[in-house]
Amino acid sequence: MTRIYFNDVVTRDGFQIEPNFIPTDDKVRLVNELSQCGFAKIEVTSFTSPKAIPMLRDAEEVMGRIERVPGIEYTVLVPNLRGAERAFESRADEFNLVMSTSETHNLANLRMGREKSFSGLAEVIRYVDGRTPINVSLSTAFGCPMEGDVPQSVVEEFVQRFADLGVRGVTICDTTGMAHPAQVSLMANDLQKKFADLQLTFHFHNTRGMGLANVLAAVQSGIVRFDGSLGGLGGCPYAPGASGNISSEDAIHMIDAMGYDTGIDIPRLIGLARELPQIVGHPVPGQVAQAGSTCDLHPAPAYVAELR
Description:
Strand order of the largest sheet: 1-2-3-4-5-6-7-8
Radius of gyration: 19 Å
Mean pLDDT: 95
Helix content: 40-55%
Structural class: alpha/beta
Largest sheet: 8 strands, parallel, barrel
């Protein structure tokens, strides 16, 4: 069976836009529980300025307290040189750098143009100098709600520029939930042909209900690495009507049911997803946690025995 690798981003991408601060103890416990589920990677937190993202102001403490499981990579978002310095002290296994392929979205989200973002991230890559693996996440790769389509050639140009700088991987992000399966298949096939040496990850949101369809299209095109967020938490503040990331448990349940090897303890993951609403204080979008796995059987109504 083909092995599919998942990275859960709930404690970073999911928690950073929550309206209320998630206690540090809850973050640490959640990362530890996710580690026991068998994820390939867990994006734990962000070393962005606490003023910019106050919900993750406890990044150092969380990274210092989590129980690391051998074989799992604990990755962190790094926005700039200062973030990289802090991330080194945290002993992160991977640095995730982020910029948008849409000029307007980059200006809205990062307050700078794409070229300035690229220059800043290139400076971080040179500073790291191979001491820690680097992944670059390219936002709005499938479309921007303010500009519309982002040409695939633009996405591939940025992938090439970062590959030339020696990054280990690139994540292709449907930040605003605009991707559709045919577009995903085309992107996946082309990128794998042109960048066979890169660790390619796809990152989908479920804003328009196409998240799992896009995962399936990517898997059938040969992509084996995906981001997901427990319970489907997350979202983009610059995408009108945006919902969260694809739900990790929903995507993993689907892929597992189709016969792929995910390495994930799905019953344990579903149980953890069912605890999430109590942690964040509101319902979450994930569906499998509500309905249960397709393997969960239920007793028939009493009258059925009389009809046999």
